[in-house]
Design goal:
The complex is a heterodimer of chains A (250) and B (324). Chain A is built from ten helices and ten strands. A six-stranded mixed beta sheet of chain A has the order 6-7-8-3-9-10, sandwiched between helices. Chain A has a four-stranded antiparallel beta sheet with strand order 2-1-4-5, covered by helices on one side. The longest helix of chain A is centred in the middle third of the chain and has 20 residues. Chain B is built from 15 helices and two strands. The longest helix of chain B is centred in the last third of the chain and has 27 residues. The two termini of chain B are 30 Å apart.
Amino acid sequence: MLEVSGITQRFGGVTALDDVSFRIGAGTITGIIGPNGAGKTTLFNIVTGIYTPTSGTVHLEGKNVTRHAPERLAAQGMVRTFQNIELFGKMTVLENVMVGLHTRGRSGILASALRLPWQIAEERRLREQALHWLDFAGISDLAEIEAGNLPFGKGRLLEIARAMALQPKVLLMDEPAAGLNSRETLELARLIRKIREEGVTVALVEHDMELVMDICEAIVVLNLGRKLAEGTPREIQENPDVIAAYLGEG
Amino acid sequence: MKSLLRNEAVRFVLFSAMILALPALLAGGYLLNVFVFVGIHTLLAVALNLLLGYAGQISLGQAAFFGLGAYASGILTATYGQNPWGTMVAVALAVGLLAFLVGFPILKLKGHYLAMATLGFGIIVYIALNEAVDLTGGPSGLPGIPNLSLGSYVFDSDLKNYYLIWGVTLATILLSLNLVNSRIGRGLRAIHDSEVAARVMGIRVRLLKVQIFALSAVISSIAGSLYAHTMTFVSPTSFGFNFSVELVTMVIIGGLGSIYGSFLGAALLTLLPEMLRAFQDYDIVVYGFLLIAMTMFMPGGLVRGVPELARRLLARPQKGKADA
């Protein structure tokens, strides 16, 4: 589904990622873990087109998408969430999800300004779809609240609802459990499984090991910009290199 | 009453009714002439607000689009005897195309750099208007621009021009309200909040920015054409850097991201200098002081600050009653 091969990223003299390769199978939940500074977020930024890698390629469903801009990748089904939730704070919760449906609409400036009949119908359709995704994330009761006023945990759910509105093939989540309490983390785990049931391939960068071991079928471990290990949660837990890296012996 | 005011359509009808009834109250005096300019300034402020208040992109060159519209209409009708209405439309489209072409490279820039680039564009146009003496008449201006007319009906009085200009302005306000409450409007606000997040949502940020920049140029150009036909004379000083800054001030004082705020800002900045005449030589000082005070105490602009002030003033007597 998603194949990353030989990705290297240098920033000036610093090598953030060094020849990283792995594959994520369709319909799986894959965790990408590693100590701070391992290059996890850099990797996400490359895969979603925010950074252009120094070398290496990214393939989505066999298609080379390496230098595609984020907006193009989004339309092709590669969607992400952010570590520090990036909501549109002055818009309502519903409007946020409707922004996620931007590529599902086609009315431009003229049609919108003139409120042509098909534009009105399109707005209604987008609104209904947005409500569906709010319902999916369990926050439809918050539809009319300004997104900037949401508590952090609900903001996270909104970001996921908005990402799902794009109907991604691959959803990349950057530390989805960061800042959540244990009850919210359980809710999140349930939501991520539900997302997979929709046929979406999920990849997440995460520090919460309990969550990763619980929901992921495959794990990729990064350390100091290199791939350290890859395997099932059990294999990873027993891997001596991984244990060493986490305990700081490496 | 309050919930009624929340309804966009009701608000627009009330606002239009107020505007259309205003000349009866002003009884054709000097203020009517001032309100013709409030109309033109509102048109310009709404155009800039789409760009600055919604998409969050600064332009310090709006006066240039206004000037290009005014001069192109003036030259083509006064010197070359073209039909003013057709000219107005053709010029607006040409200015929009120019903005599109200029916008593509410069809207890549952000913040201060974008301000500098649009400022530079404004200065180039200003210099061109001054130097192309054969076409524009240079610093002494371009006289003899005809009034607009429909058949034998000529828009040659303040009252007629008031209704002509406010007709266009009200239509633009209505279309702008539709626009900001649509897929496009949501896209613009998304860009304003977080460009990266907007791109990740699949919004073609650069294209949308350039489109809205061009749209704001089209509206400004129409305002320029209307100005030229109303004044029957144009000179470069009306389209300089100062006026671009004044437009930005109107949008900010009125309220960023509020279409009606643009009207309030335009009205205030047009009326204030007239009202401050009493201070004679000190009017510019008082004017500056008021602007500073308003930005300090009403950071959300008049459109949010005035209701807030009213609420506080109304709340006070009730408190007094409770004490007694």
